[in-house]
Amino acid sequence: MDLSFLRPLYARPGPFACAYLDVSEDGGRSRSGPAGWEQVRERLVAEGADVATVGALAHAVSPGDGPIATSPGLAVFAAHGRLALAESLHERPEHDRATVTFVPDAMPLALQHAPDIAFAAVQVRRVQEPGGASQLVAEVQIGRWPAARVTPPEPHMRQAAAGEWRQEAVALAAELTAAEDRHGIELVVLSGDRWGCSVLRAALPGRLDERVVGLDIEPRAVGAGGLLFEEELGYLFDGRLSARDKHHVERFLTERARQGEAVEGLTATAGALREGAVAVLLVDTPQDLDRERLWVGAATRQLGVSQEVLAPLQAEASWQVPAGAAVLRALVGEGGELVAVPREELPLADGVGALLRERPRERAA
User: Fold this and answer.
1) Which InterPro entries does the record match to this protein (predicted)?
2) Where are the chain's structural domains?
């Protein structure tokens, strides 16, 4: 999973005021904001957050017409009186949480972006017209799961008379193929008129046809800001890894078996991050890294299980922070990727491991 969306969060120094809020209707959202905001605010003030920083968060959680109006959860981060990042969550947090810390508490947010799989949803409807003629209308949404649950992609419409659908299907197939080339679409979910869907599938290239999942459901009207097949997509993607993440896991297992370019456990993983050697961080879910704490300095590579480890790195100051926050900051700083794996599928020591960057081969003498 690409973590570039977190880079703005680490562009400024701490301390950060961080909050995860239930902003769903069930959570008590009102015109004045989430029901739990006052308790969160009091907790942040008690931990030393300044008035301007708390004010920046308060403005971010205020109701409006943006994603907060429909999202079940919200993650917000601010420092030195300015908002650093605000992200809608597709799942509300188990409970409201707030903390003031030198390193942003961003691991729960990052994990809500998994598995980050590109998909296309296509619904083909037959619309009868006066006189017995019919039109075929295709609604297409191309996005990434689960981000599309929070911000559904804009739908694209194609339509043609039934007698002209074969030509239109060829054009739509070309559009989907181009999207597959650009975004790496791994799943095409197709539903609706059986003949129309069959013609479209016949027009798809083999590599894309292999990725089609057909749904035998009645066509549904999707309103503004809606997502086609949202419930069905949830079932299809549940527990699924992206093709890239599967490759990373398989390579990790191979390297671990031969004691090669892989490490496991918090101490070894922190050491590899400190050396800038981590290409991919693997985390068991549900994650419990925050039960442990690491020492960190101002630079992203300055982290370790003890304060003494930071001495050779010339850290002018150091702090203890939750391990999840520390390893994620170091990973983003090095441009690494994150893979979230169900614990029962890949139990890792301390719930964390890393696939290391390939070392350049030494030239023969």
Assistant:
1) Bact_RF_family2
2) 4-104, 117-237, 243-356
- Decide: helix, strand or coil at residue 330: helix
| Range 117-237 classified under CATH 3.30.420.60 | yes
Task: Look up residue 120 and give its amino acid.
Answer: A
The yes-or-no verdict on residue 71 having pLDDT over 90 is no
CATH architecture of 243-356: 2-Layer Sandwich (3.30)
Structure tokens at 150: 């929070």
Strand ranges for 80-193 from DSSP E: 82-89, 97-101, 117-128, 134-145, 156-161, 187-192
Which CB contacts under 8 angstroms, 24+ apart, belong to 193-202? Answer: 193/124, 193/125, 193/126, 193/136, 193/219, 196/124, 196/126, 196/136, 196/138, 196/165, 196/169, 197/124, 199/165, 199/166, 199/169, 200/122, 200/124, 200/138, 200/169, 200/172, 200/173, 202/169
What are phi and psi for residue 229, nearest 5 degrees?
Answer: 55, 35
Residue type, 337: E
Confidence of residue 47 (pLDDT cuts 50, 70, 90): very high
State the pTM of this model.
Answer: 0.90
Residue 222, pLDDT score: 80
Per mean pLDDT, which range of 24-28, 73-77, 191-195, 303-307 is the poorest? Answer: 24-28
Report the C-alpha gap between 298 and 135 in whole angstroms.
62
**Nearest 5°: phi and psi at 119?**
-145, 165
- The residue-averaged pLDDT of 173-193 equals 97
d(CA 110, CA 289): 13
CB 213 within 8 A of CB 187: yes
Q: Which of 52-66, 151-165, 295-309 has the lowest mean pLDDT?
A: 52-66
Q: Is the distance from CB of 16 to CB of 79 less than 8 angstroms?
A: yes
**324 with 294: CB under 8 angstroms?**
no
* Tens-place pLDDT, residues 253-271: 999 999 999 999 999 999 9
Q: Which two tokens stand for residue 114?
A: 């998994």
Q: What is the rounded average pLDDT of the residues 154-161?
A: 94
